[in-house]
Each structure stands twice: as structure tokens, then as C-alpha cells.
Amino acid sequence: KAGVTQTPRYLIKTRGQQVTLSCSPISGHRSVSWYQQTPGQGLQFLFEYFSETQRNKGNFPGRFSGRQFSNSRSEMNVSTLELGDSALYLCASSLLGLEQYFGPGTRLTVT
Amino acid sequence: AQTVTQSQPEMSVQEAETVTLSCTYDTSESDYYLFWYKQPPSRQMILVIRQEAYKQQNATENRFSVNFQKAAKSFSLKISDSQLGDAAMYFCAYRLGNYGQNFVFGPGTRLSVLP
Fold it and tell me: What pLDDT is attached to residue B2?
């Protein structure tokens, strides 16, 4: 079975721009979670989608949003980028929300 | 709110030796799961081991085992016969047993394996 894939792997954006990251879960997994990883804050939970519905949300501003499609693929959008948004964004998929399987991440750099 | 603490930012171990990584967590719940994840320099997080809070028996996966002390809210990871490939960041994580609850991760411990 193919693992979790994330595109793009690297991204450089300018402050004020917006960005969309994509995540394709393991086949059959209906839960997709997003995390932001930074050296200072560690791994922080953004949100989780299950069957196209946001099931759980972390403590991030409204600039961070996501969605999930009927094929379970998920996208995460960040609008009005700030320098502090520079991070590794990890996506994880899960069959029933228990064990999570992570993708390789998208490294976002905001200049 | 649940919190996960890993008090050792960095650790090192000699190849073939045993090392124990510490993790404590804070929760008032009784039904939850604990995990150890490994993140090698390539960055892909890998599940190492899982422990259900209702199970008294400590989980074991090959060279990896845990010491789960529920009353003390402690969940340490023991790596036996350490190998160079074990070098990575190790994250302890907590998840409530209720369906749909998010994971809470500790800050991580960077493990170096010395040849």
C-alpha cells in the first residue's frame, strides 16, 4: 500500500500571499490530520477531517483552513502568510483516528 | 488540557547498548492511548509503539518496549541493542480514547547513537 503523500515538498512564499498544501492519505483511510512543526513550538495540531467533515480543530487563527474531498484527499490553506508560518507541515492519515501514519511533510518558508 | 512532557531534550547511547527515553503526561481521563513516534533526519514520522491505558501489560515491539506506569502517568521507551538507524527525534504522544480526539505530542528527545 502506498503511504501518505504530500505535495509540494518544498515551498517558498512571500508575506501576505496564500498557500495551499495537499495530502493524499493511505488508501482506505478516512481520517486526515494536519500538524505544524517548528523548532520552538514542536508539533502542534491544526485540524482533523473525517469523511469530508472537520471533526477536530486546534488553536490556530482563522487564516488556517482545510477541507477534505470525497476521495479522502485533503488540502490545507493558509491565507495572508506571516513569517511565523514558516514550518514543516505534516499530514497524517488514520483508518479510525487511532494510529496515525505521517507523510514526509511540506517545508514552507515565508520570506 | 492534556499535556505531554519529555524532560530529556537530547540523549546519546553507544551502539548495542540500551537507552531509556522518559515521558510523562497529565490527564484526568482513564481511557486513553499513548504512542512513541520516531522522526529520523529524513523527517518522516514513524510509529514505534502503542499502549492502551486499560492494558496493564507493557507493549513490546522487537527491540522497543515501554514501561507504562499509569498511576505515575509515566510512559518511558526502552530501546535495546541500539543501532545506528535508531538515531532520530522521538516523540511521545497522547490521545484520548474518545472517537475523534486529536493527538497531543511532547517536545521530543533527540537520540544520538554513537558507533
Answer: 78
